[in-house]
Structure formats: C-alpha cells, structure tokens
Hints:
Elements: H1 4-20, H2 28-42, H3 48-57
Amino acid sequence: LADPRLARAAVACFRAAIEALPRIGAGPALVAAVSEFADRYVSAGRSPAADLIDVMKDPGRRLPAWLTAEGRE
C-alpha cells in the first residue's frame, strides 16, 4: 500500500465491507476480525507479510497469532 491512491482505495473498500457485513448476515466475530485486520494492516499501510519481515529482523519476536495453530482455533 505504498501508493497513496491504492492505500486510500483499500481503506475505502474495507470501510464499505465492514459496514456491509452485518447487512448480509455476518456475525459479530467476523465483523470484529475484518475490523481488526483493517486496523492492523490497511489503515497502517502494512501487509500481513510485514509481520513476517518484522520477525525475521528480530528473532526474539513471536510469530503473529494468525500464523500459529493457537491463532487458528
């Protein structure tokens, strides 16, 4: 999301999706998960791969929960 136009478009798309999810029957857990993803990555201009890059730069860091078995339960 380095390109400012793409970043703005991504934020707008996620905002629209988060607003639409309840209308199409998505439960609160899914809405919360999408909102959390948008906050962590889209709004911050990051990608999920950035978490892996951070871990590689600092071997003492833990893997993000979404990459572990515990995070998928």
